[in-house]
Design brief:
DNA primase, PRIM domain, alpha+beta, 507 residues, 20 strands, 4 domains, elongated
């Protein structure tokens, strides 16, 4: 069958992709719910004749959304998640007027197409579609087209997706726009898809204006799909309440949760909502019921404004952490845009000390969170930690540099021995031939520990520290390279010789 020029033009305007090549798919039998197919890449222009063959059923084609300049006029989410009812996704698109176009794939799964009035950078399209994929809880078994963010010189053609309305007049063919009432013929689908062809800003505005766009993914998907099964509803509704309180602590929780509960396919009773869920917020401490909820996407959740580890949920904005490998190590952590310094791991691990430091330096007292959640926050900070190895500075006040300073003082100030016998008297022998100092452990410990009251290191640790400087034992003596010990510098002394006594101010 030949289609009108208007139909072919409208279809081409919607699916405007890569012009260098297109994919051709030969569909075989269905195995385990998925259609088996053989795909071939055809180099050439997608002409009106090619579109006509696709619509007529003689050539099944697919297109890469990314054009030669790295922009897109359309994109798609390919959902192959068998766990959830795809009818819930279809209903959500329709009921919430989401600017996406659901079409069945060749395996009767779902393609969600997005269309733009103007060319949009591929990366921006991907980010939009990632949000939708998260919102529909299909992030685990999903492909997003385009797959590439940037144009590559090595490959001028990119991943492609099969287009809908192959053999469009065949009533047995399900590759069509699907609504709650069923499949739409092409003459009804084209105007509907064209009406959802809007600007990138309008797509962003729809997301921003959606009431629950900034909620954790489990809440967002639950509101859209409305299918929270028994055993999940109470904890899910409680988490909804946590989100609402974080967003607006003065919100009418009863009214909001009543509305959300009523939208579910299987709502709980009003009595259970009031006496179990809402009463739970009388507790001093409460948070999301993450461990008990399905459809969790932890990575996406941390990026949501009111997700776990967000500033809204903790009261803090956690930034980069740096570890300085002094002895012992200390840490710097950017919290709420300011640098906090922690002199031990205990100050970070223990929330009491952490909160005290926040009060002192940030002038806020953050909320205490559960230990497990605090551990996750610290783990995420440590995953991207920057480790700095500072050079030893004799003017430093850390334990390690203090030990080093005392070590240098021992060798620089100790009386030198003329022979081996004098070494046993506590002196240091300078072996010029081997370029080493020779000394006894007893003399060193007596100087560092007893005379200078340095008790931060146990004897075994003192031994290790000396070995790190190159020291080694030889018989009853120890040796250390002369070059490992900096020479003490003579201080510059300035003497002011005055001709007369200084004047003394009369009080």
């Amino acid at each position: 069958m030949a289609y009108s020029n208007n139909d072919i033009l409208a279809f081409s305007e919607l699916f405007k992709g890569n012009t260098n090549a297109y994919g051709v798919t030969e569909v075989g039998e269905i195995v385990d719910g998925k259609a088996q197919s053989k795909s071939t890449l055809i180099y050439g222009e997608v002409t009106p004749a090619v579109i006509n063959r696709h619509l007529s059923g003689s050539l099944s084609i697919g297109l890469s959304p990314m054009q030669e300049d790295g922009t897109c006029f359309f994109g798609a989410i390919d959902i192959d998640d068998y766990k959830y009812d795809l009818n819930d996704v279809i209903a959500a698109v329709e009921d919430f007027n989401i600017p996406l176009c659901p079409c069945y794939s060749k395996s009767k799964k779902l393609h969600l197409y997005i269309f733009f009035e103007e060319p949009v950078a591929a990366e921006d399209v991907i980010n939009l579609l990632k949000w939708y994929a998260t919102a529909f809880a299909c992030n685990k078994k999903v492909e997003i087209f385009p797959k590439q963010k940037n144009v590559s010189d090595k490959n001028k053609f990119y991943s492609w997706i099969n287009l809908p309305y192959f053999d469009s007049n065949n009533e047995q063919n399900h590759r069509k726009y699907v609504t709650k009432e069923g499949l739409l013929p092409i003459e009804d689908a084209l105007p509907k898809m064209l009406s959802k062809k809007i600007s990138y800003k309008e797509h962003k505005a729809w997301i921003d204006e959606f009431k629950y766009h900034d909620a954790p993914p489990c809440i967002l998907s639950g509101v859209l799909l409305r299918d929270i099964g028994p055993g999940q509803r109470n904890n899910w509704l409680f988490s909804c309440g946590v989100y609402l309180r974080l967003k607006d602590e003065n919100c009418d929780l009863r009214e909001e949760l009543t509305e959300i509960n009523a939208s579910l396919k299987q709502p709980i009773s009003e009595n259970e909502l009031n006496n179990t869920i809402i009463k739970g917020f009388n507790r001093k401490s409460y948070f999301y019921m993450c461990a008990t909820l399905d459809r969790c996407n932890k990575i996406a959740c941390t990026q949501q404004e009111y997700g776990i580890e967000s500033k809204a949920s903790t009261g803090l904005d956690f930034g980069d952490m740096t570890q300085y490998m002094t002895d012992p190590p200390y840490y710097e952590w950017i919290v709420n845009g300011q640098k906090l310094t922690f002199w031990s791991e205990a100050e970070i691990l223990g929330q009491r000390k952490f909160r005290a430091l926040c009060m002192r330096q940030l002038h806020i007292v953050p909320r205490t969170v559960e230990d497990g959640r605090w551990s996750k926050i610290l783990t995420r900070a440590c995953e991207n930690i920057t480790v700095v190895h500072p050079t030893i500075d004799t003017g430093d006040f850390t334990t390690g540099s203090t030990f080093f300073d005392l070590t240098c003082a021992f060798f620089n100030t100790r009386r030198k021995a003329d022979n081996a016998t004098q070494i046993t008297m506590g002196r240091v022998f300078v072996d010029e031939k081997q370029r080493e100092y020779v000394f006894t452990a007893k003399a060193f410990v007596d100087f560092v520990v007893n005379k200078n009251d340095f008790k931060q290191y146990a004897p075994i640790e003192i031994r290790v520290r000396l070995q790190q400087l190159g020291a080694h034992k030889e018989g009853s003596y120890w040796r250390i390279p002369i070059d490992s010990i900096p020479k003490a510098e003579e201080p510059e002394i300035k003497i002011d010789f005055r001709d007369k006594e200084p004047e003394v101010e009369d009080f």
